Each structure stands twice: as structure tokens, then as C-alpha cells.
Amino acid sequence: MTANATKQDLELVSVTKRYGDALAVDAINHHFKHASYTCLLGPSGCGKSSTLRMIAGHESVSDGSILLAGRDISHLPPARRGTAMMFQSYALFPHLTVLDNVAFSQKMAGIDAPTRRKKAAEMLELVDLGALSDRLPDQLSGGQQQRVALARALITRPQVLLLDEPLSALDPFLRIRMRAELKKLQRELGISFIHVTHGQDEALALADEVVVMNNALIEQAGPAREVFNAPKTAFVARFMGGHNVLALPDGHFAIRADALDLGAAGQGRQDATVTGIEYQGTHVSIAAKIAGDQEVIVMMPDARFFDNPTNPGETVGLIWEDTHLHRLTA
């Protein structure tokens, strides 16, 4: 265990996963602080779900170690790790009531019926489903099914809860509501949540820490606001969204879309040709092309755009302050 790790922390030490000749996770190291909400973020195939499944024990570790509270859990079965996994599909038993779904793992562990039912009822109260304990899964909404799956994962009182794209099956409105519920629950329970997503908005809304993965490696990790505002690589800047990557004579830079402005042709830092306008309610997104066929996005408050609108095909001047440029290392 590293010097700055506390007794409850989870650590990945040179964790590698191979599927035959394919390298899914390449010797990654990371220290997850206890009682924090971490999002593993990245495109499909980057290694984030393989990493989560190795922590859970649903995938074997090809090389390296997974430490929880200072002990190597890499070779323990899932039920003995101190972790619990909530699956994307929820995987509820259709023939069991909500209460019996939540109590199922306790039944498998040989816990007597009164005790496991009492614990399951407590968990259902925690996720505000106490009144629906006698229903079957198909009598519930998507959001209610998700909370049953959450209660079932939490009944084992894990040190770390692992969530594999838990919001992807929900409609956009419910997804936003469930984000707030997950964050509230994590704070109340005081345990670590590790949540896999490919949604940047989801990661920024939920995470104390964001871990951005790309090509089997951790590209950047840190507090959500820091990763968004100070991306280290062009990949992170583009993937997190809200940034442009500019190739300038003295290097590559990221600049937030809302830090760019438009002026008359010839009066900015560079001229640009407007290629598209998208009204987004509070803001207008203006797509444009600059020298070298680089595409940039300018995000302007809607009132300011409509005071002096521009149209696709027009040439404009692109304006920015050098203090808003963020140098990229790669």
C-alpha cells in the first residue's frame, strides 16, 4: 500500500488484461480514495469496463494486483472481495418479488429468512422503494428497477460499489434525476462508488474524480473540474467536450468553446468560415473552419449571437485571449 493510501482505499498496481493477443488494459496504476465517487470515462473499447470487471472479480487479472484496504483481492471470488457490482442490464429475477430479489444474495449465503428479509426491507427503504416490496420487476418503471438493482448490490455492505453504465437504459429526464439520487446515496453511505460511463456530462455531474481512459491506458485522472479545465492531451480535450484543439505555430493548445468570440473578417486572431449554426436554448453553437482545415466550435450566449447574427458561408474573425489558451503536452 502506498504511503498516502488510507486503510480503506482501493489501488490498482500495474493491472493488465489480455484477451489472447489483444491488450485490453495495459499495466495501469491508480489509487481510488475511500468514500469518493469516481467515474471511469472513455470511448467504447478503451478498457474501462474490463477494469471494472477485474475489480469486481468477473474478469481475471492477467498481470498486476488489486489492493483493497491493503490486501490483495486479485484472486478472491467476487463475494469475498468487499466489492459489489451493479450491472447495466439490472439482471433482476422476473419471477421474484422486489424484496426477494434484494434478499437473494443473502439467501445464497445461507442467512435465515427473517434476517435476510429484514435487511432487504432496510435496503428498500434506503432507495425509497419500501412500499413496492411485493411487486414483480415487470410492474416497475425503469428507474424503480434500477433502484432495486442498487439495493441488491448494497445489501452486502460493500466497501466499494461498482456501477457499469447504470444510467444508459433510462430516458434523458430520468437519467438526470437518477444522477442526483446516486450522488446523494454515495454521500449518505460514505463508501466508494466507481462508475463506468462514456458520457462526459454524466461524469462531470457525478464524479469527485474522473479517470479518462484511451487505448487501454489512463490518459488523465484528477478532480472533475481540473480534468475539464486543464486537459493534458488533445484526446482528453476533445473527449471531454467543450474545447477546441488549435495547432498554432508554437504548439498545440486547448481553448474552451465559450472562450472564443466572433468579430468582423480580418479583425480577429485568425479568419474562419462559418460552416454551421445550432441554436441550443441558452447558447448558440457556431461551427467554423480555420487555416489547415481545422474545425472549431464557438459557444455564444443566445442574446449576444442574435444581436449580430452570422450565417453559414460567411467569413468571420476568430477572437481569443492568450490567457485562455491551455498548452497540451501530447
Characterise the protein shown here.
By secondary structure, this protein is an alpha+beta fold. It folds into two domains: 10-229, Rossmann fold; 244-327, OB fold (Dihydrolipoamide Acetyltransferase, E2P), CATH 2.40.50. The chain is built from nine helices and 18 strands. The chain has a six-stranded mixed sheet, sandwiched between helices. A five-stranded antiparallel sheet has the order 13-17-14-15-16. Strands 2-1-4-5 form a four-stranded antiparallel sheet, covered by helices on one side. Helix 2 (98-108) runs parallel beside helix 4 (142-154). The relative contact order is 0.12.
Please summarize what this structure is.
The chain is an alpha+beta fold. It has helices at 48-56, 98-108, 113-126, 142-154, 172-189, 200-206, 224-229, 234-240, 302-307, and strands spanning 10-19, 22-32, 37-41, 63-68, 71-72, 83-86, 160-164, 192-197, 209-214, 217-223, 243-248, 251-256, 261-264, 270-279, 283-290, 294-301, 315-319, 326-327.
Fold topology:
Blueprint: E1 10-19, E2 22-32, E3 37-41, H1 48-56, E4 63-68, E5 71-72, E6 83-86, H2 98-108, H3 113-126, H4 142-154, E7 160-164, H5 172-189, E8 192-197, H6 200-206, E9 209-214, E10 217-223, H7 224-229, H8 234-240, E11 243-248, E12 251-256, E13 261-264, E14 270-279, E15 283-290, E16 294-301, H9 302-307, E17 315-319, E18 326-327
Parallel strand pairs: 3-8, 3-9, 6-7, 7-8
Antiparallel strand pairs: 1-2, 1-4, 4-5, 9-10, 11-12, 12-18, 13-17, 14-15, 14-17, 15-16
Helix pairs in contact: 2-3, 2-4, 3-4
